[in-house]
Specification:
By secondary structure, this protein is mainly beta. The chain has a single domain, classed as Beta Complex (Metal Binding Protein, Guanine Nucleotide Exchange Factor, Chain A), CATH 2.170.150. The chain is built from one helix and ten strands; from the N terminus they run E-E-E-H-E-E-E-E-E-E-E. The longest helix is centred in the N-terminal third of the chain and has 6 residues. Belongs to the Gfa family.
């Protein structure tokens, strides 16, 4: 697959977005947060992500180095994406692929990332 357009969001539907991303390049991180959530992530430049609804429903959580803005729905608690800065200072969005419509996470082969040691 190449870059494709997907729609996604939280469980209750308050947060909804569209993103153009390549889900062939996903990761599964073992940091203290990702491991507990079981997220599978793909990354997209901020300009490839459009939050269509739910800005007012988002709560933010930062931990460790406090550089990633983990955003979750204040109603249902689902973190469907996060915002941060990638290599070279590019604004990025980390998208929880499990929250994308029409995507079967069991068909993916995420790269294991050792976030616990970072």
């Amino acid at each position: 697959m190449a870059v494709q357009r997907y729609e996604g969001g939280c469980h209750c539907g308050r947060v909804h977005y569209a993103v153009s991303a390549d889900i062939d390049n996903t990761i599964a991180c073992n940091c203290s947060r990702c491991a507990k959530l079981g997220v599978i992530l793909t990354f997209a430049p901020a300009e490839s992500f459009v939050l269509e609804s739910g800005e007012d429903a988002l709560s933010e959580y930062r931990f460790n180095k406090r550089v990633i803005r983990h955003l979750f729905c204040a109603t249902c608690g689902v973190e469907s994406f996060a915002r941060g800065t990638g290599p070279g200072g590019v604004e990025m969005v980390a998208v929880n692929v499990r929250c994308l419509q029409g995507v079967d996470p069991d068909t993916l082969n995420p790269k294991r990332v050792d976030g616990r040691s970072a």
